[in-house]
Amino acid sequence: MASHSDTLVVFFGATAGANGGKLGSDERELILLVWQIVDLHENKVGKLHRTLVQPDSVDLSEQCKEETGLTAEELCKAEPLESVLQQFHQSVSAELKSLGRSSYTLCVDGPLLIRQVLHPEASKKNLVLPECFYTFVDLKKEFHKCCPNAGPVKDLTLLSMLDYVCIQATVEQEAGLREVKDMVLLILHVLADPYNHKFSAFETVNYKFESGACKTEAVDSETVIRARGLPWQSSDQDIARFFKGLNIAKGGVALCLNAQGRRNGEALVRFINSEHRDMALDRHKHHMGSRYIEVYKATGEEFLKIAGGTSNEVAQFLSKENQMIIRMRGLPFTATPQDVLGFLGPECPVTDGTEGLLFVKYPDGRPTGDAFVLFACEEYAQNALKKHKQILGKRYIELFRSTAAEVQQVLNRYMSTPLISTLPPPPPPMVSVPVLATPPFITTGNTRDCIRLRGLPYTAAIEDILEFMGEHTIDIKPHGVHMVLNQQGRPSGDAFIQMKSADRAFMVAQKCHKKMMKDRYVEVFQCSTEEMSFVLMGGTLNRSGLSPPPCKLPCLSPPTYAAFPAAPAMLPTEAALYQPPLLATPRTPQAPTHSPAPAFAYYSPQLYMNMNMSYTTYYPSPPVSPSTVSYFAAPPGSVAAAVAAQPTPAILPPQPGALVRMQGLPYNAGVKDILSFFQGYQLQADSVLVLYNWSGQRSGEALVTFPSEKAARRAVAECSNIPLSGHPIHLACCE
C-alpha cells in the first residue's frame, strides 16, 4: 500500500465460541464480521456493514448465543468465509473510490481477531487472505500512546477507554454494531483537539517463516515455547503454519531429536516478543490435522541447546540463506560427494555442487550414514524427495525435509566429544552412609535377569512401579530399580528392574506385559544387564536387537567405593541408600584403618546430576529398592540391629503349585482351548498364562499352574504330544 494514513477500516468479529479476551483460544470459527470506514483527513465515517459468516460447524457456545444473539438457523443461511472476505474487499474498495482515497488500514480492538482467529482459520481452510489483512492498527496501543496515564495496554478495554475520555458508550442492541460504533467514536475523539493523534504504529503479520541459522546470542526466555505432540514428519514450515498469524523470529523453529537422531515430536519455537509468545500459549491443544498440539513455556537456554551451533563447518554450510534443506539417511559408509550428486541427478541440482553437501561424522571421522543437502528452490527439493527409498549402492536411502536447527543439532550430537574422561575428581567426603553387605553394583553380562518397562505414565514414581509389580517385588534385587530420565531430567516413560534370576524376570515379563498402570498399558520385556547398560548409555533396545550408543564406547566398569573409618551408626534413609549410577567414574578403593569396624562409603548426589554427556539423551536415575526393610540385603554391624528393630511388613508368600510349559500351540489357541486340553485336571482360567513375543503376538507357548507337582508330572506324562487343533503339544515341567 502506498500510504497507511488515508483511511482506517474499523473491523470487528465474533466466533462461535469464546469472545473478548479469550477470542481464538478455543479454535472456534468466525460467525460475524462488522466494519465501517473512517476518513482520517476529513474525519468522516462511511456506511456500517454487518455480515454473518457460515461456519463448518454451527454448534454455538452458550456464551456466543448470549453475547451475539445469533442462532444456528441464521448462520446456515449465511455465506462461507471465503465469499464474505471477497465481499468485504469489494465493498471497501468501492467505498474508497467514491471517497477519492487510495489505501486503507484495518483498525481492531486488540490483535486477537487478526492473529488468533482470521489467519489461523484461513490457513486451515487454505484461503489466500487479501494483502490488507497483513497490516493493522491496534486501537489499544494507539490509545495508550495518546493517553499513557490510562493504564497498561493489557488492562485497557473499550469501555475503560471511553470512560477515560468521558465519552458515553453507544446504546445498541445488536452485537458487533455496538463495538464498531464505540471504536469509531473513540477514533474521532483522539483525532480532534486536544489530542490531534496520528496513527502510526502499524503492526504486521509475516507472510512466511524465514528459515536460517540461529545466532548464538542470548535468547529471551519470555519469547520461547515448547510444542509437543507434533507429527514426526512435520517441518519447520508446518510448525510455522500452526502458529500462523504470530511472528516467529528468523530461524526460530528448532525440531528436537531423540537419542537416535530422529525427531521426537517436539519443537522449540522462538517468537519476536513476549506478546506473541503469550498468544502462542493460548493455542495449547489446538489441532494440526487430527492431532492436538500441547504448547508450554520454555527457556532461551533450552532453545540455544537445540538450535545454537558452534561448529564452523555448520555455520559455513548454513551461510547460504533461503535454501531448501533435505536430510539423507542410510547412506553407504563409502559414499562420496560424487555418489550423492549422481544419486540426486540433474533434475535436482545441489546448490554449489559438493559445497552444498554436509556429511555427518563421528568424532573420529567415521561416517554416520547421514548427510544434509541444500537446494535453491522448492521444485528441486520436491524432485529430491521423490527419490525417497531409492537405492544407492546396496542400500535404500531415506530423504526428509530438514531445518537449520536440525542440522546444528545432529552435528552437535555426533561430533561433540564425550565428557566421561574429563569428569572432575570426587569432592571430599561430606556425608557418611552405611555400605550394604551386598553392594548394588551393575555388573554387565548376558544373563537375561532384568526387565524393561516401556510406556510408563510420566507421573509414575517408584511406588507405582512396585504396586504394578505386585507379588513379584520380592524378587527384585536390592537397589535394582532404575528410572530412565531424558535430557531435561524428566521421566522418559522407561525403567529397568534387576531381578534375582532369569526365570523370575521371564515370569514377570509374561505376567505383567501390557498390564495397566493408571490409564496406560505398560510393555514389559526381558533383557540382560548388558542390554540395560547400553540403553542407559544412549543405545537402543528394540525388536531388531541391540544398537550401541553413538559414541561406540564400551560399557564402563562398575564403580567402587572408598572406605572410611566407622562413624556413628545411623538408619539408612531412602536418599542415603542411593548409590552412584552406572556411569560414575570408578574410584580407587582404600583399605579401612579399623578392620573390626563396619566400612562406610559416601556418595555425592551432585555426581549424578553433573554427568551431562553430550552423546546421549537418556540418563539413569539413582537406583533404588522397594521401600520396605525386608527387601534390603543384610546391613552390617549396628545398622543391622537398628533395621532388625523395625516391624517386619507382611510379604506375600510364594504361590503354591507347579508350572508346566506348553510348546507348539496353534497361534489362535486361547485359554478355553488350553483348559479343554487339560480336561479332568480341575484347572481354573487364571491358572493359564498365554505367552507373547516382543511384537505382541502369541508365541505358541503357554505356562499352566497345577495345584501340585504330582499333578503337573502326571499331566506331562499323560498329555505330552497329544494334538491340539492338529498341532502336537510338547509339555515340560518348569524347575
Automatic annotation (TrEMBL):
Molecular functions (GO terms): RNA binding
Cell compartment(s), UniProt: Nucleus
Pfam families attached to this UniProt entry: RRM_1
Keyword Nucleus: yes
Protein name: Epithelial splicing regulatory protein 2 isoform X1
The organism's place on the tree of life at top rank: Eukaryota
Function: mRNA splicing factor that regulates the formation of epithelial cell-specific isoforms. Specifically regulates the expression of FGFR2-IIIb, an epithelial cell-specific isoform of fgfr2. Acts by directly binding specific sequences in mRNAs. Binds the GU-rich sequence motifs in the ISE/ISS-3, a cis-element regulatory region present in the mRNA of fgfr2.
Gene: esrp2
Organism of provenance: Danio rerio (Zebrafish)
Keywords, alphabetical: mRNA processing, mRNA splicing, Nucleus, Repeat, RNA-binding
